[in-house]
Specification:
By secondary structure, the chain is of the alpha/beta class. The chain has one domain: Rossmann fold (3-Layer(aba) Sandwich), CATH 3.40.50. Helices cover about 35% and strands about 20% of the residues. The chain has a six-stranded mixed sheet, sandwiched between helices. Strand 2, helix 1 and strand 3 form a beta-alpha-beta unit. Helix 2 runs parallel beside helix 3.
Amino acid sequence: MDEPGSQASGISSGQSQLPRSRAMVVDDEPIMVRVIHSMLTRIGFTVDKAGDGLEAKALLERASYELVVTDFRMPRLNGYELAKLIKEQYNGTVVVMITGSSLKEVTKSGVYPGPLDAWLFKPFDHLEFIDLVTVLTSLPGEKEPC
């Protein structure tokens, strides 16, 4: 796996999307980081990676992000606390929370819906993820009706 915070950009051959802004994927599971990184680069994002919320916080201090996709449960600084920090300090950043927990579990924990733009529950379909990110990061006027 690349070092947390490493960058990659590009659009896979055959795709014609225009390059988007910078995104960050935050997860302590390397496989999830690779999968989400791959999906985001295919739709034109430049992607930074962090293994937990504290690494993500350090990256946020050095760069601007249009999108942060974060796991809910992580060591050191969890996704909920990271989302709160982002919405308080980096208001224009879209935050998508991914979790293996059920809706019932996150609702009981008192964090749902929370200070973020969307929740995505595992397992999720890759097209569902791409559609969600595309809608949330479209410029005003580009969004299709949901």
